[in-house]
Amino acid sequence: MAVIAIDPTTGRLADVPAETRNYSGSGPNKDRQEASHPHQFIWRVSSSVTTVYVPDLGADCMRRHTFDATTGTLTDLPSAPATSPGSGPRHLAFHPTHPLAYVINELSNTVSTFSIDDPSPSTPTPTMTPHATPPISILQQGDAIDADKTAGEIAVAPSGRYIYTSQRGYDYITVLKLDDTTKVPTGVVQWYKLRGKGPRHFTLVGEDLMLVGLQYSRMIEILEVDKESGKVKSVGLVEGVPDEPQCLAVF
Protein backbone atom coordinates (compact mmCIF):
# COMPACT_ATOMS: atom_id res chain seq x y z
CA MET A 1 0.00 0.00 0.00
CA ALA A 2 1.34 3.44 -0.88
CA VAL A 3 0.53 7.10 -0.24
CA ILE A 4 1.44 9.27 -3.24
CA ALA A 5 1.43 13.07 -3.14
CA ILE A 6 -0.35 15.11 -5.83
CA ASP A 7 1.13 18.41 -6.96
CA PRO A 8 -1.63 20.99 -6.24
CA THR A 9 -0.62 23.11 -9.24
CA THR A 10 -0.08 20.54 -12.00
CA GLY A 11 -2.06 17.61 -10.63
CA ARG A 12 0.92 15.33 -11.32
CA LEU A 13 1.74 12.43 -9.04
CA ALA A 14 5.00 12.46 -7.13
CA ASP A 15 7.72 10.18 -8.45
CA VAL A 16 8.30 8.60 -5.04
CA PRO A 17 5.56 7.58 -2.56
CA ALA A 18 5.41 9.58 0.67
CA GLU A 19 4.70 6.38 2.57
CA THR A 20 4.43 2.66 1.90
CA ARG A 21 3.35 -0.42 3.80
CA ASN A 22 4.29 -4.02 3.01
CA TYR A 23 1.80 -6.19 4.86
CA SER A 24 2.32 -9.79 5.91
CA GLY A 25 0.11 -12.53 7.31
CA SER A 26 -2.17 -15.31 6.14
CA GLY A 27 -5.47 -17.00 6.92
CA PRO A 28 -6.90 -20.51 7.29
CA ASN A 29 -8.02 -20.77 3.64
CA LYS A 30 -4.74 -21.95 2.11
CA ASP A 31 -5.93 -21.47 -1.48
CA ARG A 32 -6.96 -17.82 -1.07
CA GLN A 33 -5.25 -16.65 2.10
CA GLU A 34 -1.67 -17.78 1.61
CA ALA A 35 -0.47 -14.18 2.01
CA SER A 36 -1.70 -10.65 2.61
CA HIS A 37 -4.18 -9.35 -0.01
CA PRO A 38 -5.23 -5.75 0.79
CA HIS A 39 -8.32 -4.95 -1.28
CA GLN A 40 -9.35 -1.40 -0.40
CA PHE A 41 -8.11 1.89 1.07
CA ILE A 42 -10.88 3.95 2.69
CA TRP A 43 -10.80 7.13 4.79
CA ARG A 44 -12.76 8.09 7.87
CA VAL A 45 -12.36 11.73 8.93
CA SER A 46 -13.26 12.83 12.46
CA SER A 47 -12.91 16.30 13.96
CA SER A 48 -9.27 15.73 14.85
CA VAL A 49 -7.94 12.59 13.14
CA THR A 50 -8.11 10.90 9.75
CA THR A 51 -8.12 7.12 10.02
CA VAL A 52 -7.35 4.83 7.08
CA TYR A 53 -8.93 1.37 6.89
CA VAL A 54 -7.53 -1.37 4.65
CA PRO A 55 -9.49 -4.66 4.52
CA ASP A 56 -6.95 -7.47 4.05
CA LEU A 57 -8.60 -10.56 2.56
CA GLY A 58 -5.49 -12.71 2.81
CA ALA A 59 -4.61 -11.92 6.42
CA ASP A 60 -8.25 -12.00 7.59
CA CYS A 61 -8.20 -8.54 9.18
CA MET A 62 -8.83 -4.82 8.76
CA ARG A 63 -5.55 -2.89 8.77
CA ARG A 64 -5.81 0.56 10.36
CA HIS A 65 -3.63 3.67 10.32
CA THR A 66 -3.93 7.32 11.26
CA PHE A 67 -2.97 9.70 8.47
CA ASP A 68 -1.14 13.02 8.64
CA ALA A 69 -2.27 15.03 5.61
CA THR A 70 0.56 17.54 6.02
CA THR A 71 3.37 15.02 5.73
CA GLY A 72 1.50 12.21 3.95
CA THR A 73 2.65 9.74 6.60
CA LEU A 74 0.83 6.90 8.34
CA THR A 75 0.92 5.74 11.95
CA ASP A 76 0.02 2.09 12.47
CA LEU A 77 -2.90 1.09 14.70
CA PRO A 78 -3.83 -2.40 15.88
CA SER A 79 -5.61 -4.41 13.18
CA ALA A 80 -9.19 -5.55 13.73
CA PRO A 81 -9.63 -9.29 13.09
CA ALA A 82 -12.33 -10.71 10.83
CA THR A 83 -15.46 -11.77 12.68
CA SER A 84 -15.10 -15.36 11.44
CA PRO A 85 -11.78 -17.06 10.54
CA GLY A 86 -11.46 -17.62 6.81
CA SER A 87 -14.21 -15.17 5.87
CA GLY A 88 -11.86 -12.95 3.85
CA PRO A 89 -12.80 -9.27 4.42
CA ARG A 90 -12.80 -7.52 1.04
CA HIS A 91 -14.40 -4.06 1.21
CA LEU A 92 -15.82 -1.79 3.91
CA ALA A 93 -18.51 0.89 4.01
CA PHE A 94 -19.50 3.29 6.79
CA HIS A 95 -22.98 4.25 7.91
CA PRO A 96 -23.58 7.93 7.08
CA THR A 97 -24.78 8.95 10.57
CA HIS A 98 -24.04 6.10 13.02
CA PRO A 99 -20.60 4.88 14.22
CA LEU A 100 -20.83 1.59 12.36
CA ALA A 101 -18.82 -0.07 9.60
CA TYR A 102 -20.06 -2.91 7.39
CA VAL A 103 -17.55 -5.35 5.91
CA ILE A 104 -18.30 -7.57 2.91
CA ASN A 105 -16.53 -10.91 3.35
CA GLU A 106 -15.55 -12.32 -0.04
CA LEU A 107 -15.05 -15.97 0.88
CA SER A 108 -17.98 -16.49 3.26
CA ASN A 109 -20.43 -14.29 1.31
CA THR A 110 -21.45 -12.46 4.48
CA VAL A 111 -21.65 -8.93 5.86
CA SER A 112 -20.11 -8.23 9.28
CA THR A 113 -20.95 -5.20 11.41
CA PHE A 114 -18.32 -3.33 13.45
CA SER A 115 -18.67 -0.54 15.99
CA ILE A 116 -16.38 2.43 15.35
CA ASP A 117 -15.18 4.77 18.07
CA ASP A 118 -13.63 7.87 16.56
CA PRO A 119 -10.84 9.68 18.43
CA SER A 120 -11.78 12.12 21.19
CA PRO A 121 -9.89 13.91 23.97
CA SER A 122 -10.71 11.03 26.34
CA THR A 123 -10.01 8.24 23.81
CA PRO A 124 -7.32 9.49 21.42
CA THR A 125 -6.95 6.14 19.60
CA PRO A 126 -9.81 5.11 17.27
CA THR A 127 -11.20 1.63 17.88
CA MET A 128 -12.98 -0.94 15.73
CA THR A 129 -14.75 -3.82 17.46
CA PRO A 130 -17.12 -6.54 16.19
CA HIS A 131 -20.78 -5.75 16.85
CA ALA A 132 -22.85 -8.23 18.84
CA THR A 133 -24.97 -8.82 15.74
CA PRO A 134 -23.68 -11.94 13.92
CA PRO A 135 -22.65 -11.77 10.23
CA ILE A 136 -25.54 -11.98 7.78
CA SER A 137 -25.42 -14.00 4.56
CA ILE A 138 -25.98 -12.33 1.18
CA LEU A 139 -26.80 -15.66 -0.51
CA GLN A 140 -30.21 -16.90 -1.51
CA GLN A 141 -31.41 -20.01 0.26
CA GLY A 142 -29.94 -23.04 -1.49
CA ASP A 143 -26.97 -21.19 -2.99
CA ALA A 144 -23.83 -22.94 -1.81
CA ILE A 145 -20.46 -21.39 -0.96
CA ASP A 146 -17.58 -22.49 -3.17
CA ALA A 147 -14.40 -21.10 -4.65
CA ASP A 148 -16.15 -19.66 -7.72
CA LYS A 149 -18.98 -17.97 -5.79
CA THR A 150 -17.63 -14.91 -4.04
CA ALA A 151 -18.87 -11.56 -2.73
CA GLY A 152 -17.76 -8.38 -4.48
CA GLU A 153 -18.75 -4.86 -3.47
CA ILE A 154 -20.69 -3.19 -0.62
CA ALA A 155 -22.31 0.24 -0.30
CA VAL A 156 -24.72 1.94 2.09
CA ALA A 157 -27.66 3.93 0.77
CA PRO A 158 -27.33 7.69 1.39
CA SER A 159 -30.46 7.42 3.55
CA GLY A 160 -28.70 4.93 5.84
CA ARG A 161 -31.63 2.53 5.54
CA TYR A 162 -30.22 -0.16 3.24
CA ILE A 163 -27.00 -1.98 2.36
CA TYR A 164 -26.24 -3.12 -1.19
CA THR A 165 -23.83 -5.95 -2.01
CA SER A 166 -22.83 -7.80 -5.17
CA GLN A 167 -22.36 -11.55 -5.56
CA ARG A 168 -20.16 -13.05 -8.26
CA GLY A 169 -20.92 -16.52 -9.56
CA TYR A 170 -24.63 -16.40 -8.87
CA ASP A 171 -24.48 -12.81 -10.16
CA TYR A 172 -27.00 -10.79 -8.21
CA ILE A 173 -27.35 -7.69 -6.09
CA THR A 174 -28.46 -8.35 -2.51
CA VAL A 175 -30.36 -5.59 -0.71
CA LEU A 176 -30.23 -5.72 3.10
CA LYS A 177 -32.55 -3.75 5.39
CA LEU A 178 -31.03 -1.86 8.33
CA ASP A 179 -32.89 -1.56 11.61
CA ASP A 180 -34.45 1.89 11.95
CA THR A 181 -32.88 2.43 15.39
CA THR A 182 -29.73 0.32 15.73
CA LYS A 183 -28.77 0.39 12.01
CA VAL A 184 -27.65 -3.25 12.05
CA PRO A 185 -28.72 -5.54 9.16
CA THR A 186 -32.00 -7.32 9.87
CA GLY A 187 -32.62 -9.32 6.69
CA VAL A 188 -32.75 -9.42 2.91
CA VAL A 189 -35.19 -7.19 1.03
CA GLN A 190 -34.28 -8.36 -2.49
CA TRP A 191 -32.00 -10.52 -4.59
CA TYR A 192 -31.86 -8.91 -8.02
CA LYS A 193 -30.55 -11.20 -10.77
CA LEU A 194 -28.22 -9.22 -13.02
CA ARG A 195 -28.18 -9.38 -16.84
CA GLY A 196 -24.51 -10.32 -17.06
CA LYS A 197 -21.72 -12.04 -15.17
CA GLY A 198 -19.11 -10.95 -12.66
CA PRO A 199 -20.41 -7.88 -10.74
CA ARG A 200 -16.99 -7.08 -9.33
CA HIS A 201 -17.91 -3.49 -8.52
CA PHE A 202 -20.84 -1.07 -8.51
CA THR A 203 -21.37 2.52 -7.49
CA LEU A 204 -24.39 4.42 -6.23
CA VAL A 205 -25.10 7.68 -8.06
CA GLY A 206 -27.17 9.86 -5.76
CA GLU A 207 -30.16 8.21 -4.14
CA ASP A 208 -31.87 6.65 -7.11
CA LEU A 209 -29.27 5.14 -9.47
CA MET A 210 -26.73 2.33 -9.40
CA LEU A 211 -24.11 1.44 -12.04
CA VAL A 212 -22.92 -2.19 -11.97
CA GLY A 213 -19.72 -3.29 -13.70
CA LEU A 214 -20.23 -6.79 -15.11
CA GLN A 215 -16.61 -7.81 -15.55
CA TYR A 216 -16.94 -11.08 -17.44
CA SER A 217 -19.71 -9.86 -19.74
CA ARG A 218 -17.98 -6.54 -20.48
CA MET A 219 -21.18 -4.67 -19.70
CA ILE A 220 -22.44 -2.00 -17.34
CA GLU A 221 -25.99 -2.46 -16.07
CA ILE A 222 -27.93 0.63 -15.00
CA LEU A 223 -30.29 0.08 -12.08
CA GLU A 224 -32.96 2.38 -10.70
CA VAL A 225 -33.11 2.43 -6.90
CA ASP A 226 -36.41 2.87 -5.06
CA LYS A 227 -35.50 5.06 -2.09
CA GLU A 228 -38.43 3.85 0.01
CA SER A 229 -38.32 0.08 -0.52
CA GLY A 230 -34.59 -0.12 -1.27
CA LYS A 231 -35.28 -2.41 -4.24
CA VAL A 232 -33.59 -2.07 -7.61
CA LYS A 233 -34.69 -2.66 -11.20
CA SER A 234 -32.89 -2.53 -14.52
CA VAL A 235 -33.37 0.55 -16.70
CA GLY A 236 -30.47 0.17 -19.10
CA LEU A 237 -27.50 -1.84 -20.27
CA VAL A 238 -24.22 -0.67 -21.80
CA GLU A 239 -22.75 -3.50 -23.89
CA GLY A 240 -19.42 -3.90 -25.63
CA VAL A 241 -17.26 -2.23 -23.00
CA PRO A 242 -13.72 -2.36 -24.51
CA ASP A 243 -12.20 -4.01 -21.47
CA GLU A 244 -13.41 -5.82 -18.36
CA PRO A 245 -14.95 -3.19 -16.01
CA GLN A 246 -13.42 -3.71 -12.58
CA CYS A 247 -14.12 -0.39 -10.86
CA LEU A 248 -16.60 2.40 -11.58
CA ALA A 249 -16.19 6.00 -10.44
CA VAL A 250 -18.47 8.96 -11.12
CA PHE A 251 -17.02 12.51 -10.99
What's this, in brief?
By secondary structure, the protein is mainly β.
Task: Describe this entry's structure for a reader.
The protein is globular and about 45 Å long. Strands 7, 8, 9, 10 and 11 form a five-stranded antiparallel beta sheet that branches. A four-stranded antiparallel beta sheet has the order 3-4-5-6, with no helix packed on it. It contains no helices and 19 strands. Helix content is 0%, strand content 46%. The chain is mainly beta and 251 residues long.
Q: Tally the beta strands.
A: 19
SSE class: mainly beta
Terminal Cα separation, in Å? 24 Å
Strand content: over 45%
**Low-confidence segments:** none
Provide mean pLDDT, rounded: 95
- Radius of gyration (Å): 18 Å
Strand and helix order: EEEEEEEEEEEEEEEEEEE
Shape: globular
* Major beta-sheet overview: 5 strands, antiparallel
The helical percent reads: under 10%
The number of helical segments is 0
Strand and helix map with partners:
Layout: E1 2-3, E2 19-20, E3 42-45, E4 50-56, E5 61-68, E6 73-81, E7 89-94, E8 100-105, E9 110-117, E10 127-130, E11 136-137, E12 150-156, E13 162-168, E14 172-178, E15 185-193, E16 199-205, E17 209-214, E18 219-225, E19 232-238
Antiparallel strand pairs: 1-2, 3-4, 4-5, 5-6, 7-8, 8-9, 9-10, 9-11, 12-13, 13-14, 14-15, 16-17, 17-18, 18-19
Key attributes of the depicted protein:
single chain, 251 residues, mainly beta, five-stranded antiparallel β-sheet, four-stranded antiparallel β-sheet, globular
